[in-house]
Amino acid sequence: GYIGGFAGSANGTIERCAALGNVNGLGLTGGFVGHPGCEMIVRDCYAAGNVTSGAAGGFTGHIRGIIERTYASGDVTLTGNSSGGGFGFYGSACTDSYSCTVTDSYATGNVTGISGDMAGFSYQINGCDIDNAYALGDVTATTGKAAGFAMRITDNYFGTESTLDTIFSAGSVNVTSGDAYGLAYIAEDDDVTNAYWYDAPTD
């Protein structure tokens, strides 16, 4: 099933809400919502709890619908061979008739996993519009691949490109046995502008 700190699965409009507790799951899990509906709109909400699951996002499991002025501050721990991100697990609209939009949103928690693909904001972004979003937490994996913002930025299954403007990550990215990327692993012929990665030096 789907698990979230505010709702496991939801549709419609949710505004000015918070989820404060830790969330533990086995399937798709989010600090605020696990599985948003195709037409879901979330505005001015946040998730503050830590999230632990095999497929997890600090704020939402799937990124879809319209998400505005939201944030996740909890840490994300990925169990087993799994994928996830500090804000969302996977971003893609249901079909070309629906939205996948994130505006003025961020994640500050750390992301830790054993094996798989993980990122500071979202493991994968497929055909989404993301404007003014950032990830501040560290991303740490034992094996696999890790990225500061997103592992994969690609077209969706319907051929819609991702459009990202003003994004950045500012945490360290560490993989014991694998590959680490400051911002993203794959960015296809999608429209990515004003994108930055900053890793503060250590003493």
Q: What's the helix and strand layout?
A:
Layout: E1 3-4, E2 7-10, E3 13-15, E4 18-19, E5 23-24, E6 28-30, E7 33-36, E8 41-43, E9 46-47, E10 51-57, E11 60-63, E12 65-68, E13 71-72, E14 76-85, E15 88-92, E16 100-107, E17 111-119, E18 122-126, E19 129-135, E20 139-147, E21 150-154, E22 163-169, E23 173-181, E24 184-187, E25 191-197
Parallel strand pairs: 1-6, 2-7, 3-8, 4-9, 5-10, 6-10, 8-12, 9-13, 10-14, 11-15, 12-16, 13-16, 14-17, 15-18, 16-19, 17-20, 18-21, 19-22, 20-23, 21-24, 22-25
Description of the structure:
There is one protein chain. With 203 residues, the protein is mostly beta strands. It is 0% helix and 63% strand. It contains no helices and 25 strands. The strands form 4 sheets. Strands 3, 4, 8, 9, 12, 13, 16, 19, 22 and 25 form a 10-stranded parallel β-sheet that branches. Strands 1, 5, 6, 10, 14, 17, 20 and 23 form an 8-stranded parallel β-sheet that branches. 56% of the residues are buried. The model has no long low-confidence stretch (mean pLDDT 92).
Helical amount: under 10%
User: What are the secondary-structure elements, in order, as H or E?
Assistant: EEEEEEEEEEEEEEEEEEEEEEEEE
Number of helices: 0
- What value does the average pLDDT take? 92
Shape: globular
**Rg for CA atoms:** 15 Å
In total, how many beta strands?
25
Ends apart, CA distance between termini: 45 Å
> Which residues sit in consecutive blocks of at least 5 with pLDDT less than 50?
none
Structural class based on helices, strands and sheet pairing: mainly beta
Beta-strand residue fraction: over 45%
Largest sheet: 10 strands, parallel
